[in-house]
Sequence to fold (792 residues):
Amino acid sequence: MRRLAFAAVVSAFCAQVAPLAAQSSQFGVRGLGLPVRPLSPRAIATGGAFGMFDLESSQNPASISGILQFTSLFSSAQSFRTSTNPYGTASAKDNRFPQILVAGPIGGTRFAASISMSGYTDRNFSLGTTDTIQLRGAAVGVFDTLSSRGGLSDLRIAGAWQISRSVQFGVGFHAITGSNRIENHRHFSDSTYAVAVEQSQLSYLGLGISTGLAVRIAPRLTLAGTFRSDGHLAIDRDSTRIARTDLPTSYGIAVRWQPSLKVAWAASYQAKQWSASNQDIVAQGGVGSNNVYEVATGFEVLRNAKNPGQKPLRFGGRYGTLPFPVRAGHQPHELGLAVGTGFRFIRGQGGFDLSVERLWRSDGTGYTERATILSFGFSLRP
Amino acid sequence: MRLAGGLATGLWVLGACQENLSTPGDCPTLCPGEQIIVRDTAIDAVVGSDSSFFGYQARSGRTALLVSSGLPAGEYRAFVVFPAIRSDSVTVDAVKHVFTLDTAQIAFTMQSRDTTATNLRLYLRRIPITADTTLTYDSLATLIAATPVLDSILVPDTLKAGQILTKFTGDRLALIQTEPGDSGRIALALTVGASKPTGIRLAVDASGSTGAPVFQFRGKADVTDTAKVRQTISVRPESVAKFGYFGNIDLAATADPDLLYIGGPQAGRSIIRFAIPKYIRDSAQVLRATLELVPARTLDGLPGAVLRDSVAVRGLQADLGAKSPALAVIGLQLAGLLKEGTSEAVSVDMFRLVSQWQTVGGPPESIFLAHSDEPTGGSFMQPVFYSTRSPAGRPRLRITYGLPTRPGRP
Fold:
C-alpha cells in the first residue's frame, strides 16, 4: 500500500509539471498539432491494433463493456527524438501523460462506464532560427525562439452495454478542450538590446460524440468498429473569440483473432476526415489539413493464459498519414514499430505495462524525424 | 530485484520530468506566426520644453577640494583652516601631561588626478586664519600671490589616489608654529603644479571623516608608562565655512537660455521632456533606449582623471519644473560618460526609465540631467549641451522597439 501511495505521489507530481499530451514533434507545429492516439501502453505495444478491444484505451467506447472490476490507469510517455529539416538537425526529449482512465461496471447490470482524459493533439514545440538584421547602422545577429506549450485534450465520458455475450455497444461523449501558450523570443547578439518577448494564449473548446461496437462473430474472432463526430472547435485568444474550426469525423474497424489461448493477433484500420478543418485552418493563416488513415497490426503472446497480465510479449507495427502538412501539398506520414510487456502484482490489483515504440516520420521534402517513445502505464484494480 | 526495479522507476521519474523541445526552423515558412518586428526610431525632445536651473547644491555640501593649474576647464584654488591644536600638553588616561613636540604632519586624501601629468606637486601656503567661504577666486589668488610657499608635497607619479603628506621636524617646526593671537589655528592655501597643465581633487568634509585633511602633532608625553610616551594630537577642518575652493570660470553666470547646463559651481541641472508616441508606449516592447546629447562646447575637465566625468539622468516622480522630485528607485539613476576634451555626442542608456514610462500610471516622460559629481562638487567640468531651440544637435531619444505579431496561427 505504501508503494502504491508513493507511485500515486510521483504520478501526481509529474502530472503537474507537464501538460496532458503525447510526444512533441516538428510535425505538430502547424494546424492543431500532432494527433494523439488515445491508447494505453498495452495497446501501443501492439502498434495500436488492439486499441479498439482494450478497455484501458479510449478508442472504442464499447471496449469497456467487458470490465469486471473498477480499474484506473495512469500513463506516462517519454519521447526522445531527432528532427531534421532543411535548416538543421536537433535532438529533443519531452515527457507527456497521454492517457488517464477510470472505468468500472455498474453493479448488477450489463452496463459499464468510464471517464478518461486523453491527448487529442499535441502542440508542444520550440523552433529556433538565426538571422542578421540592421539596427542603428550596424549588423546585429538575432536568435529567434518560438515556443508552444499545450494542445488539445479529449475528456470522454463513456457508457457501454453488453447486449449479449457476443455483442457490445458503447457511446462516448467528448469534450475537446485545452490551451496553447505561445512565446516568441528574439535574442540579440548585442547585449545592449533587451530580449524581445511576446506571449499569446489560445484556448479551445469543442464537443464530440462517439459510438462503438464489438461483435464476436466466431469463438476466436471478434470485430470492432467505431464512429466519431467531433463538431467544431471554438478558439479564443486571450479570452477573445477569434476563430472556429470544424473538426473531423472519423471511423475505424478492427479484427482480433485468437488462434490459441496464449496468442492473439489484431489488425485495424482507421480514417479521420481532417479535410473538414482545411478551409478554416487556411482562413486562419495555416497551411491546411488533409484526411488521414492508419493501419496497424500486432500480436499479444501470453506466458500464462490464467494470468494474462504477467509478462506477456506484445509487438506490432503501424503506418499512417498525418493531417497537418508543414508545406502545402506534402502530407507527412509515419511508420512505427513497437514492443512491450507488463506485469501484475498484489494478486492482480496493480499492474505495470511498458512499451517501446520506434517512429519514423517524413513529409518527403527534407522534414524527417526519428523518435523513440517509452510508454509506461500504472493501473489499479482495488 | 525489487531494488533494481525501484532504481529503474526512480531513474524513469527523473528522466521523465525533463524537457528539451528545440528544433531548428525557418520562419515564416515553418513558424505558426511572424517573427517579432523590430524597429528603430529617434524621438526629439518636446521643442521649447527644456531648460536649465541652478543652485541644487550648496557650497557647504561639497566634499571635495579642487585645485588646478593651467587647465582649459579653469583655474581652481583651495583653502583649509584647521582648528586650534595644542602643542604643549596632551591628555593621557584622562590626565593632562606635558607634551614635547618633535614632528608635525599635514596630510590630504587625493581622490583623483591627471595620471598623465608627472612631477605633480601640491603647494601649501600659510594664509590668514580669517580665510573663509566669503572669499572669491580673485581675493584668494591675491592672498596666495602675496604669500610664500610654506611647503610642497611631491605626489609620486605612480600614485593614482590615496594619502599624500608632508612632515615638519627640527628647525622646520618653526614654519607651522602659530601666533598666540591665532589660538593655535593654521590656515593653508593650496595650489598645484606639474609637468603640464593639471589639477587634483582632494577629499574634505565638515564631519571630520578620515578622508578629510589632517593636521597632526607628534611627540613625547611626560608619562611613566613607556608604551604611552609617544603621542599624537590631530585636528581636521570642522566648519564648512573654513574650507573650500574657488574657480575662475562659472558658465552659469552668463548662461545662454538656449543651451542646457549641468554641474559647475552653481550645480546646474537641465530638464528635458519627451512625448513618446502612443504606438510605442502602449503596444511596443522597448528593447533599447538611448538618450543622445550633443555638447555645445568642448567638454573641458581634468584630462586623464582617475574619476571620470559623467552625466546623471534621473526620472521624475512628478514634473513640477525646477523643483521636480526625482525618482528614488534604485536602477533608475542612469549615467553617460562625458569624454573630456572632446565634443563627442553623449549617450545614456535609458532602457530602464523608458520601460517605466510604459507602465500604467508610470512617471512622466521627463528627465533631469545633472553632473554625477553634483553631490560632492568635485568636478572641473561644466558640460553644456544643445537644446531643442538649437538649430542642430537637439537632445533626442533613440528607441529600438519590438512590435507584437500575435503568433498562434494554425
